[in-house]
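Hi team,

Filling in the usual template for the complex we talked about on Friday. All components are listed, including any nucleic acid strands or ligand strings, so the model treats them as one assembly.

SUBMITTER: L.P.
PURPOSE: interface mapping
COMPONENTS: two
RESIDUES: 504
SEQUENCES:
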Amino acid sequence: MQRYFLSNSQFQDDTITIGGEDAHHIARVMRMEEGSQVYCCNEEGKTAVAEITNFTNEAVTLHIVKWIEESKELPIQVSIASGLPKGDKLELIIQKATELGAHRFVPFNAARSIVKWDEKKGIKKVERWGKIAKEAAEQSHRSVVPTILKPVSFDFLLKESKNYDYKIVAYEEVAKTGEMSRFANVLTNMKPGESILVAFGPEGGLTEKEIVLLEEYGFIACGLGPRILRTETAPLYVLSAISYHFELQGVK
Amino acid sequence: MQRYFLSNSQFQDDTITIGGEDAHHIARVMRMEEGSQVYCCNEEGKTAVAEITNFTNEAVTLHIVKWIEESKELPIQVSIASGLPKGDKLELIIQKATELGAHRFVPFNAARSIVKWDEKKGIKKVERWGKIAKEAAEQSHRSVVPTILKPVSFDFLLKESKNYDYKIVAYEEVAKTGEMSRFANVLTNMKPGESILVAFGPEGGLTEKEIVLLEEYGFIACGLGPRILRTETAPLYVLSAISYHFELQGVK
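RESULT (copied from the run log):
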């Protein structure tokens, strides 16, 4: 069943009103009719089954059939801080990491980021990232769309990190020494509802100076196994492992 | 340090001879000189540090400095059987799953595969897949390049499955019932050196009939968490979880 992410103002008592692109999608793309049902998620991530009662030129009106209980979200909030990579790699990260349950994206300008952020062109890019995240959230049946910050400075990342319960940084040099247990130890200590910020370098990796600063701010440098993962693969590894740990192994 | 995957015939006592594309890569792309060192892996996945001793127009000669002990491979052998997906999704699966430690790829024609396999054009495609796997293995510092079969029939997949110690199939309908523990249970039962075949549907998923047949052949239908993963994301989840389970949690 199709899923739409709506703002709270679209919900009024038992009635939902959908306009704009979503209305176009319902009427023209999906060619739904009166009586068709869809999932509607509000800003808190609560999901209602709703039935279409009326079409006008501008909007679709729906009636809430029932609110459903479902937990499609990871029990911990995972924020992905990627050192700005080249090309469209961040798009792949956002799409796949959203499917895998990421809560927030914090791209940052790393010392070895080759791409320089263009404030003017950047607005369009951030909009595009938001669209990718929304589509991936719908497709994977999530009840929350992750938020995406426009790229921040490394200093901002350090300050921002104080808002998280746990902070780790993926660092292959740690993996080379055979250190493998830190990431698993962090997850074992975490409780449902807590938050974690995970930092990743761009293609060339983080500099030693950046690692030292991150560690000063309480980031734990973790290895992700003996193989060297690309900058766009490492976040997918981390999110998959978190899902496996909390959702499949049932370690709560 | 650069890594090259060679055939056993290129090794003779303490000398290695490299021709063709790899020689071009060493001499022209990397612009190495006499005295430069590289990693050379043989067909058994053993890795030598070798030093360049001579260049000719056609070949590079190297002297083996030492054989090194390293274990970059997952302790269990994971084969990925993907229902043939659309477009270049299998390329993404092969690249990322190779980074994450896959041992073998078995693409198969699923009932809902939209792509029809063209035997003529197919040869080029399989060659391209092999190249992607080789590059990803080099980049991620693996000591083995995964093998890739040309797409097989569903019947072949069923027969082939008898050669594996464990067989699972990712099935989202199982996940919807809240079943979450089967995959973790399988991993807990597995011992180093054992093999597992993991089957995934194409975009439209596997049919009920296919699931029934797979189960008759001993496949265990497993959910991969509450979110719906795309056909190209699910194999990456499975491999990441396997690495986390065996390499990071140290469950041996």
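MY TAKE: Residues 3-68 of chain B form a domain with the Ribosomal Protein L25; Chain P fold (CATH 2.40.240.20). The CA atoms of residues 91 and 128 of chain B lie 9 Å apart.

Thanks, L.
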